[in-house]
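Table 4 source record.
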Amino acid sequence: MSDRIRIGFVGAGENTRVRHIPGFRKIAGVELAGVVNRSRESSALVAKESGIPRVFDRWEDLVSDPGIDAVCIGTWPYLHGPVTVAALEAGKHVLCEARMAMNAEEARRMLEASRRRPDRIVQLVPSPLMMGPDAAIHETIRSGRLGDLLAVDVHFCTGAFVDRVSPMTWRQDARVSGLNAMAMGIVYETLMRWIGPARSVAALSRVFVPRRRGPDGAETEIRVPDHLEILCEFAPAAVGHLRFSAVAGKGPDNTAWLFGSEGTLRADFKAQTVHVAARGAEGFADLTPPRAAWTGWRVEEEFVGAIRGTEAVRFTTFEDGVRYMDFTEAVARSAAERRTIDLPT
């Protein structure tokens, strides 16, 4: 197998331009081979800025092109499923931006397509939250320093008051974002890395601004919540409370608290710090590792390493993507049906 890997980009939003293109460019033997964005003009602009030699008019043409070995998907979620399945059927490796899909059924189709091509590497762009001190959190939990996990409490809010006048963003448009709501997916993915998936959820959601102006200036119905309260169970017996809000003005810091029988861990998502208080201690001890010791962002490096057979995909597998899409869908169903939803085991 040649070490040369030719990457094609379907969608070139901010994360692709800021992270993926520079990340791939610095890896020896990787070529930025082609790009297709929402219009010919925007595709050409990205190609010029990034030194990409080929511009495609349709994503279907890029994923089927024999001059492309791997596809990086940076579109909104509504295209993640179709592009992933088509790319795998065309024999390409796939790196897909988060969130995985519009819903859990579509995520499973993506997983099934990847299993039909076990010779191809698939990876989801992981949650960047707490990626630096992630190892310290894992070690604290694994070491038994917290004892038995009893409860989990997460607050993730913008801190802003309700905004009734701003136009709709793509994240508020269920037609392109699916069942995703605010930062719920990336926060839950982060929690899964630490304590595993939830077993059940009971959710209450609110849309406080039911209509906003769309890109064409017309009023559009908003179905994506701007406030979510979620109660969930984690194995073996921990209770979780997760709050996500775009209307909780001056709300609490964005933090995750893990309450154990012998200790409490506090993770600050903004400051990227980890503190632990043991039973009987007067205060919290700072467990945040020095930044020089952080693993940091290496998504593109991991993807290429997996293609070359030098490492396996850890952050994030399609299997974990399906798990967070199961959670996303269960939250939406619970809020709509006013009942507790059990998650697949």
